[in-house]
Amino acid sequence: MPSCPVPISEYERVLLAHGGGGKLSARLFEKMIRPCLSNPWLDLSHDGAMIRLEGRRIAFSTDSYVIQPIIFPGGNIGELAVNGTVNDLACCGARPMYISLGLILEEGLEMEVLWKIICSVREAADRAGVKVVTGDTKVVDRGKADRIFINTSGIGIIGEETEVSPASCRPGDKILLSGKIAEHGIAIMSTRTGLEFDSPIVSDTAPLNHMVEKIMASGAGIRVMRDPTRGGVASALNEISRSCGYRFIIREKDIPVAGAVQGACEILGLDPLYIANEGKLLLIVDPGDEQKVLKIIRADPLGKEAACIGEVLDSRDKLVEMETVIGSTRIVDMISGEQLPRIC
Amino acid sequence: MPSCPVPISEYERVLLAHGGGGKLSARLFEKMIRPCLSNPWLDLSHDGAMIRLEGRRIAFSTDSYVIQPIIFPGGNIGELAVNGTVNDLACCGARPMYISLGLILEEGLEMEVLWKIICSVREAADRAGVKVVTGDTKVVDRGKADRIFINTSGIGIIGEETEVSPASCRPGDKILLSGKIAEHGIAIMSTRTGLEFDSPIVSDTAPLNHMVEKIMASGAGIRVMRDPTRGGVASALNEISRSCGYRFIIREKDIPVAGAVQGACEILGLDPLYIANEGKLLLIVDPGDEQKVLKIIRADPLGKEAACIGEVLDSRDKLVEMETVIGSTRIVDMISGEQLPRIC
Q: Which among A223, A153, A230 has a CA at the least distance from the CA of A188?
């Protein structure tokens, strides 16, 4: 066994932030997991792997869900787990087809709660048009898990012509967002902290595959798609910028945020750019196709508030900068610690 | 939401036995999960789903691993997770190709332990000839998981002519086993109970796909293959018997069990037929191909002690009976409670 590549003097033990989708998550993956398991598919570190099976292009993705609470405003862990994997596949440019369901249950979980979650899995699968074809159930003793954890993995088909990859980004490309940000994370945090609002903030958990399919069918030049979950829009943009090498600029005034969400962020001391979304699409597109793609997204029930929020700059320094509402600019870095543990 | 189909007066909460691979596991799947998620692939309730993707036959399987302890005689949770999914795919008659790796880590897990486990994942993947192409890491707060849980899902390719399914079983078919049983479960139990033996009992965790590939390539008539994990050989045979409708008979004297394992079973009050294996293949084959298949298995390093242990009877009552060493017969039922929690 080679010696452990993450200096144990620095992090002798796993921290919550190693699962937060920010700098420490990236470090764990880049310094330990990827070098150890290295292969061309994993090295791409996309939301899912794009593989070939007897000549056909397939997307394959996995995600575990450990959200707390398991039932939250706007959804529960069951539909979240289906939508999350459907969205990862869609962001690979794939048509999601089949899903697996791995349940880890804590002894003592109420059967009615499990039933509610399984029903939501079914409803979400129907809505996305995927089938749950295989599964597994494990039970651990009381106190050794937190009610229920779910893993979903998924398979989708990628068209032969489809090419979505950060490497295809070019200066001038436009950065689009399908709607208002930070709703999932703030819905969860409001529940945990007992915050109440006049109009309750609900999770945006939803399947993006139908919207993506329409975009792909239009023939528009799509460079990259991401669903900005853990770590939010800021972390997703930083990841893409690092992959393609270019600097991005985004404009704060153009980023859609609901008033209630903005207010909750101020009360909680959170930046909406770093808050998880579970039903929003972030895209980088050919500048000539900006209006065409926005029109398609806005015609979708999930994309009414789509906006162009920025563009790719002709500078190869892998930074994301933001023009603020007061006209100054600041660097939007990856999140470093753990802002919101167990958000998905 | 339809009302919960498992009467909550009977089981209001999830019990450990709902994950034990026996009667309660089957009940949870058959009464709740399968009816709710019903589709032709899931309804087959094989170790994995056999699906079609643009005309190609694919096996897709998932398993979560919650074993305690995570490092045990003969292996650790990392290689167990790879081998388990490789074996599920192989038992569908597939050539395993791609694996996903979903990690749920407990805050505070030693980085060195995680490194050891990831290295074992790599080694096991290399041994089986599969690639870990996608993954996900989540961290939960201390006390909300038990060090590490792993989900692996996998994809394999099934040949066009391959037909393995319980429905193909016929009276007279032979039941074969690739080697000595109960080693994995007893290795874990010995560790947990502090039992020590002159020659330590170690887990049999191993990838069966190379052996299966040789068997399939021989053209022998293979009805069903299973790797008898949770619930052991007894539960696997009961599941197959229920699927195909026939009665099976097995002969106790022909079932390979190591002396030390037999002794440990007696001390611990356990029946080796119900103990988990992680590197054994259970097959039902055309009687004309019995010797040919045994020869292939015995030529494999993992199959030296392969044996014919019984056959399919011409009686459609879905029972498994055993001729004991003293000449009597008894019914070998599915396990009902939870004999060995968190064995895989």
A: A230
What is residue A209's DSSP assignment?
H
CATH architecture for residues B39-158 = 2-Layer Sandwich (3.30)
Test B41 with A15 for CB contact under 8 angstroms: no
pTM score = 0.96
Q: What does each of the 344 residues of chain A score in pLDDT, given as a tens digit?
A: 667 665 554 789 999 999 988 889 989 998 899 999 999 988 876 789 999 988 899 999 999 999 999 999 999 999 999 999 999 999 999 999 999 999 999 999 999 999 999 999 999 999 999 999 999 999 999 999 999 999 999 999 999 888 899 999 999 999 999 999 999 999 999 999 888 777 789 999 999 999 999 999 999 999 999 999 999 999 999 999 999 999 999 999 999 999 999 999 999 899 999 999 999 999 999 999 999 999 999 999 999 999 999 999 999 999 999 999 999 999 999 887 777 889 99
How close, in Å, is residue B2 to chain A by CA atoms? 8
Cβ-nearest to B115 among A4, A16, A131: A4
Spatial CB neighbours of A296, under 8 Å, sequence gap ≥ 6: A211, A214, A215, A218, A220, A303
Tokens of B76: 């650790």
Cα separations in angstroms, B127 against A150, A222, B83, B96, B158: 28, 39, 9, 12, 20
| CA dihedral for B100, B104, B107, B111, sign (positive or negative) | negative
CA distance B259 to chain A (A): 30
Q: Which residues pair with B248 in a beta bridge?
A: B312, B320
Contact criterion met (CB below 8 Å) for A111 and A234: no
- Give the residue on B whose Cα is nearest the Cα of A106: B14
Q: Chain A residues with CB inside 8 Å of B155's CB? A: 51, 53, 58, 60, 155
CB contact under 8 A, A56 and B51: no
Q: Which residues of B fall within a CB distance of 8 Å from A29?
A: 137
Question: Is A109 in contact with B1 (CB distance < 8 Å)?
Answer: no
In chain A, which residues have their Cβ closer than 8 Å to the Cβ of B98? 41, 49, 51, 60
Residue ranges of domains in chain A: 39-158, 166-331
The dihedral formed by the CA atoms of A80, A81, A85 and A88, expressed in degrees to the nearest 10? 40
Superfamily of domain A166-331: PurM-like C-terminal domain (3.90.650.10)
Which chain A residues are Cβ-neighbours of B8 within 8 angstroms?
Answer: 111-112
CA distance B29 to B25: 6
- Positive or negative, the Cα torsion across B161, B166, B167, B173? positive
